[in-house]
Amino acid sequence: MKYFIVVVFLVLFSCGGGGGSPSSVQPQSAPVPAPSQSSSPSNSSSTSTSTSDDIRFKIALTGLNISSSDDLAQLKLNEQTTSNGFDFTNFIAGKVDIFLKGFFPSLYAQVSTVKPIDLSQWEIITKKLVNGSLTDINPTVKVYEVDAAGKFLHRSDSNYLCFYLNSETNELSPNNDEGEQLKELRDANGNVLEVYVLDGTSPQYSNEALSCALNEVETSCDTSNLPIRIVKVLEADDSGSLIGRIEYAESFQEFENACTPNLTISQFLIKDSKVYPINDFCVEVGFYGPFTEQEFVMKPNGPFNTTDEIIVQTYAIQPISTLDCNTEKDRYIRSLKINEAEKLVVKQLSPSAFSSINNDSTSYKWEVSKVAYNGTNLFLLPSNSSQITMYVFKLDGSFDIVRPDTITHTLNVSGEFFKFIDDGIQSSYTDQPLQHMGHFWYENWDASKSFKYGDPNFVFKEDGTLLIFSNGWAHTYDVESKTFSKVVNSSTWPPSGYEIYADPDGLYPIHPVLNNCPEGSANDLTIEPKLIGTRSLPTCMIFPNARGRSASYNTQFHAVNYIVGRWKNNIVYHNNGSWHPETFIYSGYIYCLPYRPTCQPDTATKSPGFFQTSKNYMFGVNSDKNIYTRYDMDTHTYNIINLDNYNYIPQAYEVSKDVIYVEVINANNSNKEYLQIDFATGTESFLGTISEDNRTVIEIEPLNI
């Protein structure tokens, strides 16, 4: 047998004719057979009977084995494979193709029906990373017939074209867009064979008409294991659904012995391993540019959306094959939902008159935590308004414009001086703001204002109550009376059972005790109150607002603060921490952990570099990329990983719910290498350079955070 193999290769390398040289291989249009008399099965490799006529086709992405619990890995072609002008693999494949065709025609007929896919020009593909190993995503695809404009055609069992009526344009088209009704069946010569009256009732369609469907066709290219690239993806709900921007093979260029994919980028809703194309607009998922990178997907039954629909911000889409979004045009709030028929249903929620076209005072820009929807009212806070303004849109098309007055919040404190238990400081309240767990209380420490300093933010409590935060203070809003009410007031603060203003040492009876924090760092702070004699002092973690901020301190590290989520009733502020509007438990500024009650923001150790939340956890990474913090809002405990203890200098990092992926550079060969650290135990696993075939992992992207 070994001698036969040698002979075969000698024959392969000695043959020169028949189009076998690399220079003779030229791209051709894909020969796809015409549709058959019956609909094809689900596998694109087993399709309709061929004819001599070629037809246009496109590949439709129909399924994707991915969920929000996955960690993605982006694999890039190595430099030595992308710079090689001579395709050795393609050359060998061509020689084998010629040999089989000339000497073993029956064998050639068996193996030549499906051509392999040449991925040499596909720079980046995506796989899943499971326990340090790569696994395929395994997308499922269908190959369908399209018209000259690239839109999918519908045919009946007898190969008739099915024409649908567009209710908006009153035009007929063989492309069945959402909401259109079947009107006619036509044969190959354009003759109308069946016509139906569309008068608002349900037509009595024939069996032939009922068979109308996308026309699956066959291609000689192997579509069984096509890769994809996930450009950007976000969680869409708490059951694993995602909204993502995906690069995939839309069609092929066929060569004599292989197929080269033509790539395109589209957006999809991914739910229960099925994909639903989003073709008419772009969804804001944070990939458009430096000024529009904020993610905007509001989960059902979540902190900003109490309905069972997914709420998104959308932009206009450019009419080209590869997704191109125009962030300066047609900014609308829309809802997405998969109905019982497994169709994607889209509703526009914000009025057309409130589309944000330009970032100026005459238009409207919608941002995270400035939109709230409960199925009855859509609440909007334009971020570029010259004054604090709130719009409330109702189901009947009417709306209210609300411009709240400034509200003053005053602590019931008397005396010339105050005292901190946390640091023993005594100071005049007129010139020294209260500093607590890494935060200041502005303007004078006994009074603060809302709807004057700081942008308002929306969030729903678990029971559906809408809270509006301004300058860290929480308010409720009554839609009918158009009035605001303080959450923290004389009846709710101090919390029941707490003697907030007790003097535990008896030395300063007129000096209030505002908290019970330790004087230095503490790893074991508790949410339980401290009992001294018959007095119950508040826990150090009690605080009357979510965070403090005023115009005079905008340069501090709290300058970027907005609500990013909620766990149970813990309200989570970006680059900050969590605050509970009923218990008043405040996590503190998590970058200051272990707790330093008078944490100073003047070092990179405490400056934010990354902040995110996932269910009961908050995550923070400092700007020096060496301190990694995970805070549990259920138990108010935390884990801190200090990379200095591992003797690694991070180049980059990715944080998942359970592990940290640290990217380091090998000084010997400049390869990217990965270190995996368990958040709970601190256990280190060195993954090194992660490669497969001629591709290397250049980025790891956890989806669960």
Give the strand tally: 50
In round numbers, the mean pLDDT is 76
- Oligomer type: single chain
Cα radius of gyration in angstroms: 31 Å
- Residues in helices, as a percent range: under 10%
- Biggest sheet: strands, sense, closure? 6 strands, antiparallel
First-residue to last-residue Cα separation: 55 Å
Instruction: Note the overall shape.
Output: flat
Summary, kept brief:
The chain is mainly β and 705 residues long. It is flat, with a radius of gyration of 31 Å.
What does this structure look like?
With 705 residues, this protein is mainly beta. Among the domains are: 2-143 and 218-278, no CATH class; 154-214, no CATH class. Helices cover 6% and strands 35% of the residues. It has 5 helices and 50 strands. Strands 16, 17, 18, 19, 20 and 21 form a 6-stranded antiparallel beta sheet that branches. α1 crosses α3 (88-103) and α3 (88-103) packs across α4. The radius of gyration is 31 Å and the shape is flat. The two termini are 55 Å apart.
